[in-house]
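User: Structure please.
Assistant: Input sequence and predicted structure:
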Amino acid sequence: METLLIVDDEPRQVKALSAIIGKKWPRFRILEAADAEEAWSLLQREPIDAVLTDIRMPGSDGLSLAERIANEKPAVKTILISGYGRFEYARQALEHRVVDYLVKPIGLADIERIVAKLQHLFDRERRLRQSETLYREHLWRAWLGGTISRELRDELFKPYPAGIPGIAMVLEFAAPSSEIEADPDPSASERLSAKWSESLAALGRSECFADPARSRIYSFAWLDQASAARHAPWTRTVRKIYERLAEGEERRIYLGISRLQPSLTEAAPDALGEALLAVRHRFYAENEPILLRSEVGPFADAARTGTKEAAEAIASAVRNGDRAGARKRMDAFFSFRESPPYPEPDVAKEETVLLYRGVVEALRSGLLAEIDLPSMAAAKRSFEASQSCLELRSRFGRLLDALFEQAEAARRDKNGQLILQCQNYLRERYMEDLSLESLAQMYHFNPSYFSSLFKQKTGVNFSDYVLELRIRNAKRMLENTDDRIADISERVGFRNVTYFNKMFKRYTGMSPNAFRRMNGRGAMG
């Protein structure tokens, strides 16, 4: 909707024009003024797009108003109304960029012609703005992705003031709380981007653009020297703008703010990096919607260690029905959220995926194959969709509860329970000379029936199960010790190192020496 201001010292003329235009073209919001001074006051307060003004008025006339608009508000379209004897006078006003004029008396055809011209001008400008906006957003995204040329980068930053202090900000929207991350809504991002951009005018010169794929809005604000000199005023202004934006929004909105840059245009990449770092800390501070780079530090350089050990301990607790023990190890694993420096959110999620995978793999060798363990792919998607560390921990806890339920169901099965006891025995004695017949006799089974039952419950043959146990323990020794391969081979139950090398390569795709080198240890024959 555009706003049209009608200015005339004749009330009947103003009311008539206002009524006709307002009724026939509802796209226009109509304002009225009785003289040039009142009109200028409205122009200062209201977002006016066009002015329809009479030339002859008491005091300052319409030509003076048109000249002032041309000099101080050049985007506003001006149309003059002239009497018969003032036609040439009206023509002279064209040098003040008056777009057209009406000659009294004004008929409906005259109004239709003028309104059609205004609509054409507004529509053309809107298309140009949209085209320019799309082009600049393309440049911004190329700049963000590091694919912009030096010439285009100079073009992108040319309109912005040099040597002026300012800040970068990143708005990020939390996805709906669900196990499956919702698709981003481009129209919502564009709507919020427009609202945010309009509100940032309170800070001074600003620029913002939306990135719907990442549910983010990037923005820069150049501050005047007086505002930049005082930290509290501009942070208060930003907070108020954010609160108005977030009010009524269904999705949680987070705001990351860079430190004040003495010269924002020159420091734009670093400033945006700071704002991104700040907003990404929302993963650990989900109750803090506004995050300042000055109040957060960099993320930890390396991933946490001990994931394998934690997975083995949790799997052991699940096998033994020790819920308290499993929760204790889980709490210890997620203790990285208690104090900075925190790991990168994506690293925390990946470590949780590795933890869960380690638990599942350990349970697959220690529980029954017929147990319906949760899909690894589904678990990975769930962890990656977590919006906060607390949510990540909660999702892992729910999957852990499901593992306990499945393990308890297995223990209630009599034959399954016997196979579980057999598996526990094999984990403790895998390095000994084991045979299916000796195990069948120990658990009072016919060897043939025991062989079928073991495969039914575990999913693998007895000999393959024992071989897999030996290879897994050999891998652990190769990773953690410098013992000779021949000694490791014997220690895990192989009587022939050549056969060990052959079986190890069959299961892992590489020789023991190559596996050891890949894990950072030198070859030991």
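Confidence is low (pLDDT under 50) at residues 177-183.
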